[in-house]
């Protein structure tokens, strides 16, 4: 992608401390079937908050709260074993997922959102709303959702289009609400 608003690859770990923490806890995270997206250390007076962002490696399901709670306990136990942050007297651990509207910056992010409605901005173009149909070979296939000509009329869809990931400046999932009558 042209501009990555979130860290990717090894840049997820901004300094030697976060890289060391990642090294110590990655096995614990992968044992839960999860992927470590990002680590952030935030100083709050005498306490430091260690923020971990995790996600499922594959599929389109969401990480449930029980899994987050189990992972938090496992990571806390791991920290107690190795005294990961000895220079900090107190720290808070926050484990969460990246959230529904996080920027999609890697092929894995797009794979995790197959079938969802995305807002996509390509280099030199206006943003579009499109349903993600597939991803392969560094490109996505989407069907653009055209605005209704009049309120109450059904949404129109364009033909499938292929977009190279390198041509995408920004992409986010659009949260859809459905209702039953």
UniProtKB/TrEMBL annotation:
Keywords recorded for this protein, A-Z: Cytoplasm, Ribosome biogenesis
Q: Which PANTHER family match?
A: RIBOSOME MATURATION FACTOR RIMP (PTHR33867:SF1)
The record ties this protein, via HAMAP family, to: RimP
Function text? Required for maturation of 30S ribosomal subunits.
Name the GO terms of the biological process aspect.
ribosomal small subunit assembly; translation
Q: Where is the Ribosome maturation factor RimP C-terminal domain?
A: 104-177
Pfam families attached here? Answer: DUF150_C (PF17384), RimP_N (PF02576)
Give the main localization category: cytoplasm
Q: Which organism is it from?
A: Nesterenkonia aurantiaca
Q: What is the protein name given in its UniProt record? A: Ribosome maturation factor RimP
What does the sequence similarity comment in the record state about its family? Belongs to the RimP family.
Q: Which residues form the Ribosome maturation factor RimP N-terminal domain?
A: 24-100
The record's subcellular location field reads:
Cytoplasm
Q: Which InterPro entries did the record assign?
A: Ribosome_maturation_RimP (IPR003728), RimP_C (IPR028998), RimP_N (IPR028989), RimP_N_sf (IPR035956)
> Which gene does this sequence derive from?
rimP
Specify the superkingdom. Bacteria
- Look up the record and report any one GO term of the cellular component aspect: cytosol
């Amino acid at each position: 992608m042209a501009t990555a608003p979130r860290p990717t690859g090894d840049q997820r770990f901004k300094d030697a401390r976060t890289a060391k923490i990642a090294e110590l806890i990655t096995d614990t995270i992968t044992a839960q079937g999860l992927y470590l997206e990002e680590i952030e250390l935030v100083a709050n007076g005498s306490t430091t908050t260690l923020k971990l962002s995790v996600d499922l490696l594959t599929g389109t399901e969401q990480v449930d709260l029980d899994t987050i709670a189990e992972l938090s306990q496992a990571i806390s136990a791991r920290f107690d074993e190795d005294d990961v942050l000895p220079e900090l007297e107190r720290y808070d651990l926050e484990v969460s997922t990246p959230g529904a509207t996080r920027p999609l910056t890697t092929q894995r992010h797009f794979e995790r959102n197959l079938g969802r409605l995305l807002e996509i901005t390509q280099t030199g173009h206006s943003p579009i709303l499109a349903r993600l149909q597939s991803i392969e070979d560094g490109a996505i296939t989407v069907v653009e959702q055209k605005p209704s000509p009049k309120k109450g009329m059904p949404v129109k869809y364009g033909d499938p289009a292929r977009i190279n990931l390198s041509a995408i400046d920004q992409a986010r999932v659009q949260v859809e609400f459905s209702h039953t009558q």
